[in-house]
């Protein structure tokens, strides 16, 4: 055999550069198989003039965009988002539906996991997406700023991992939002001052566009152009401030395949119900031959309460690329108060629950909680006239406690053991004064105020029954839990029956979510494993109810292993 010839420095350099270029071009090959990569984004919070309905206003945006930029990652990736605040308002950003395992400092709700980012300050949100894929979104989490500060968060499966359904021809994101002519900060500020209901929005929007059913909006219409005989994956996100929404496209059906970034057993429907804070992925199969027609997509609210609300309808248009669109068809949406339609839709939702995507439903509960959720009132301050019920102020509560936000962040207070004067750990597990929740309201509807938290040990299996009330009207409440997904094991109308209703709980394939609508004058039961240490917000995703105090927080204690403990905060965590 001949002697080997050592490679020249030039050849070695060429090989090294080629290897490095491969890693840059295909970063997923670095490290272990399917290892995630780090993706960097920069959010400049800035004021931008935006015109809708022939009305121009300056509003808070990210990077001057309304809606905000799309954030895309794969399961297993790390997201590093630098947020720079250039506006007078304080701000924080929540990554809605991200588990934030061991990264609670990046969850985002102001005064819960962080102090807000003040003017000219910066904070870097740094977290890894573990065991999740699907459609989520990000939004401001302070006051009503999420009216304009929001955008999609799309988590693709790991590379070379397929969907549990046929690959679609194209993926399309549609965000269902609201437009206010007024400054939303002024709207909620006035409502909290007077104690009455806030002024409502002027329009609903698809991806920020109100569409042709509104004044002066023909040129601000969302259009979805499709090819015949193709399947499209629609990623629908309800980012509206205060409304659950019906959604339909004329003469087309959907196959529901995912909700809240968890795969669901597929089923067909021509109508979707999406509460505030929920996402729904559907497959839309277009007609085999392009018809000479266009098809309206419509959304309007589901509402059963007693207050005022925006009862308008937003329209977009589905068009076939080769069609003349000579005729336009409109879908028929249910009545605005169609509670049975909502219930029939939600009861069809089931987890996929197969070998690739199994469920992990707690079969028993170590701790059980029963929370009433609904409206109430608080006294009118002296020397002031209030516009709430009987001259009082509107409030909202969980177990009749309207949560007062502290002036410092709960997570810091907990982590550094400085809870004195910030919060107490005595949130009631059950109502202190039971009553006929869905019957005649009690004589005393005044709420208590406080910052009380629930404490549960690490890995506790938790059951929460959330019971709607009829105080000042019965309506649905979309409850969102930060830091966890949960299983919706049961729901019903009227008062929850602890002796009989649990017998009908679905512990086999219940739908897995991060936001669930508590039925109008009814109840919903959820279960989850408390496997994520930290302080976690739970609240109504109607911002008016959130502002009135329909919110509470959980402390999940550290476990024994390092992987079960919350690490210290980052050095740039904002200060109050």
Number of helices: 5
Structural class: mainly beta
Report the top-level CATH class of the largest domain. Mainly Beta
CATH superfamily of the largest domain: Cupredoxins -  blue copper proteins
CATH topology of the largest domain: Immunoglobulin-like
Shape: globular
Beta-strand fraction estimate: 35-45%
Alpha-carbon distance between the two ends: 74 Å
Rg from C-alpha positions? 25 Å
Q: Just name the CATH architecture of the largest domain.
A: Sandwich
Low-pLDDT segments:
1-7, 11-33
Q: Can you characterise this structure?
A:
Helices cover 8% and strands 37% of the residues. The protein is built from five helices and 33 strands. Strands 10-9-12-17-14-15 form a six-stranded mixed sheet, with no helix packed on it. Strand 14 and strand 15 form a beta hairpin. The longest helix has 17 residues, at 9-25. The radius of gyration is 25 Å and the shape is globular. It starts with 8 loop residues before the first helix and ends in a 20-residue tail after the last strand. 46% of the residues are buried. It holds the Pfam family Cu-oxidase_3. Residues 45-159, 171-322, 438-557 form the Plastocyanin-like domain.
């Amino acid at each position: 055999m001949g002697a080997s010839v050592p490679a020249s420095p030039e050849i070695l350099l060429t090989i090294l550069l080629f290897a490095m270029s491969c890693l840059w071009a295909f970063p997923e090959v670095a490290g272990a198989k399917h290892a995630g990569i780090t993706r960097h984004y920069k959010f400049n919070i800035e004021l931008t003039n935006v015109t809708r309905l022939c009305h121009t206003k300056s509003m808070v945006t990210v990077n001057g965009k309304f809606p905000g930029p799309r954030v895309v990652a794969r399961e297993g990736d790390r997201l590093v988002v630098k947020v720079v605040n250039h506006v007078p308002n304080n701000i924080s950003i929540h990554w809605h539906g991200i588990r934030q395992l061991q990264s609670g400092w990046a969850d985002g709700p102001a005064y819960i996991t962080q102090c807000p980012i003040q003017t000219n300050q910066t904070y870097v949100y740094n977290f890894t997406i573990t065991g999740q894929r699907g459609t989520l979104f990000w939004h401001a989490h302070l006051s009503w700023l999420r009216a304009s500060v929001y955008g999609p968060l799309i988590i693709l499966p790991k590379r070379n991992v397929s969907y549990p359904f046929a690959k679609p021809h194209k993926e399309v994101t549609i965000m269902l939002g609201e437009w206010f002519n007024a400054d939303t900060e002024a709207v909620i500020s006035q409502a909290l001052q007077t104690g009455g209901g806030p002024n409502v929005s002027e329009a609903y929007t698809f991806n920020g566009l109100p569409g042709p059913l509104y004044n002066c909006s023909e040129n601000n219409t969302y259009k979805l152009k499709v090819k015949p005989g193709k399947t499209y994956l629609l990623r629908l996100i309800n980012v509206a401030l205060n409304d659950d929404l019906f959604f339909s496209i004329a003469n087309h059906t959907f196959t529901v395949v995912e909700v809240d970034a968890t795969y669901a057993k597929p089923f067909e429907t021509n109508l979707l119900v999406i509460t505030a804070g929920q996402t729904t992925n559907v497959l839309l199969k277009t007609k085999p031959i392009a018809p000479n027609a266009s098809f309206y997509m419509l959304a309007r609210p589901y509402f059963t309460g007693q207050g005022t609300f925006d009862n308008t309808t937003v329209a977009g248009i589905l068009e076939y690329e080769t069609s003349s669109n000579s005729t336009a068809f409109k879908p028929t949406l249910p009545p605005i108060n169609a509670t049975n339609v909502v219930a029939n839709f939600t009861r069809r939702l089931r987890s996929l629950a197969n070998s690739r995507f199994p469920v992990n439903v707690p079969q028993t509960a170590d701790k059980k909680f029963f929370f009433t959720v609904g409206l109430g009132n608080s006294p009118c301050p002296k020397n002031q006239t209030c516009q709430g019920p009987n001259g009082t102020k509107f409030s909202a509560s969980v177990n009749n406690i309207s949560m007062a936000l502290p002036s410092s962040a709960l997570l810091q207070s907990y982590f550094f053991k400085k809870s004195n004067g910030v919060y107490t750990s005595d949130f009631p597990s059950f109502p202190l004064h039971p009553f006929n929740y869905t019957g005649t309201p009690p004589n005393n509807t005044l709420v208590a105020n406080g910052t009380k938290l629930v404490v549960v040990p690490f890995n506790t299996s938790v059951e929460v029954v959330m019971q709607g009330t009829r105080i000042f009207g019965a309506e649905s409440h979309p409850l969102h839990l930060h830091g966890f997904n949960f299983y919706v094991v049961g729901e019903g109308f009227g008062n929850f029956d602890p002796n009989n209703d649990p017998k009908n709980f679905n512990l086999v394939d219940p739908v897995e979510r991060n936001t669930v609508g508590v039925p109008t004058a009814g109840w919903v039961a959820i279960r989850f494993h408390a496997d994520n240490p930290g302080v976690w917000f739970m609240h109504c995703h109607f911002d008016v109810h959130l502002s009135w105090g329909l919110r509470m927080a959980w402390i999940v204690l550290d476990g024994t292993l390092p992987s079960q403990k919350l690490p210290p905060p980052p050095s740039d965590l904002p200060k109050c």
